[in-house]
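Collaborator request, handled under Task 6.
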Amino acid sequence: MDKQDCKYGADCYQKNPAHKEKYRHPPKTAATEERSPGKVEQEVSPSSSSKRSSENPLDHSDAMEDVKKCKRPPTPEKDNDNAEESDKANEYYGMTRQRYTLPEVPMDVGMMSDIYDPQIEFSKKEEYKELCGDWKMFIKHKFLVDMPDCFQSMWDFCRSKNEEKPWEVFEKLGLRLVGPFDVLAKKFKDAKMHEPGDYLRHWRFYYDPPEFQTVLVKKDSGVHYGYWRDQPDDTSGLVAMNDVNKGCEFKMIGENVFDAVIHFLENEVTTTPFNKGPIAAMKKSLEEWAKSHDIKLKANDKQKARGKAVVCKTFHKVGIVVPFDRKKELGYRELLESDANLKKILSRFDRIDNAADKIEFDAAMSQLQPVVTGAFIAVDECDFGTALELATDLFCHGTKNLHDVMKPLFVTAYSMLQRPQYIAIIKSHLEDRRRGIDLDLLTKR
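Structure tokens returned to the collaborator:
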């Protein structure tokens, strides 16, 4: 039987009889001496060795010598030729050429996740732990917004009243600090980690648009207060309120969170003979703190400035603000239908299940589609506010079977207006848009 030549020739270091039976080991010739990977030069100066390596990059003689001096740990799989494991005490035992068989299971089924998932999970936990140590970064990372200065000042006020549990300062009066205040209270520190979208839905009520972020809630009711930002990086401190049980309409009530608490104490708190004194004392304390920290209460300069920039009211009554050149009338144009007519068109969808009643849904869409098409045409002509108005009106109408219609409008409008954070918020909200008042992520299992 013809044997194959062993590529190491006479310099082969294998002592396995089966290997010698299968391969020929011809004596060295001048040519093989030059190529032999096992050949070790006896007298080679450092300079000549370096030159040889650069001239012949395939010469691995030095590396081979290093390999021979080491022991490779034995592994389960070896060549089939190595049936006999002789000379186990030999220095080179375990160094036979080995063949590693790839698993028959596809790489993407389990194996790689088993290796990397624990590392990724550890990395996430370390990042989360680091974020919990910096409340500003946590809020920016998880809620995608920056907080106004009055936010920190309100927390300092609460700490002055109750150092151990500042988040409970208003609870006896029926008001809770929630949302980003939960971060300051370190309630997320030992909480279960959630998906990114869950944080964006933390205390997000059914009619809360991306521009609104809840920070205060009246206990056992749908009344909630929060910051209103026309752009994600807005830190003006404007605050609005909504009662989700009454519908989608919001009301601007001040220019800082102190205005929100005082509005609650004056208009929403449940008064009894037992809490009249504490209510008056709390209001006085807030006013004194605001004065000493140069916080203007019940000011309206920012609200007036915003009012001039509003291009349309929308169904939630607070309106939207987009870049608009009034001279060129560039940035916004009116919808093809009035608010009254649009509400009539949308009312048809209230009784339709778009999955079960496809014919009725298409018939209703035949009336709405021209308005949608007109909004997209407006976007093509740089009137981005039109698409945002229509998307907001569909959202405020509240019918879930219009989610697929409003989502492209929101994405297009916010993309053109360079408000990508609001795209993430609206997508997360529409994925799990919940009614009711129990919207605390920290109680979610």
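The cover message to the collaborator said: "The chain is about 45% helix and 10% strand. Residues 30-58, 66-86, 90-103, 109-113 have pLDDT under 50 and may be disordered. Please let us know whether this matches your experimental observations."
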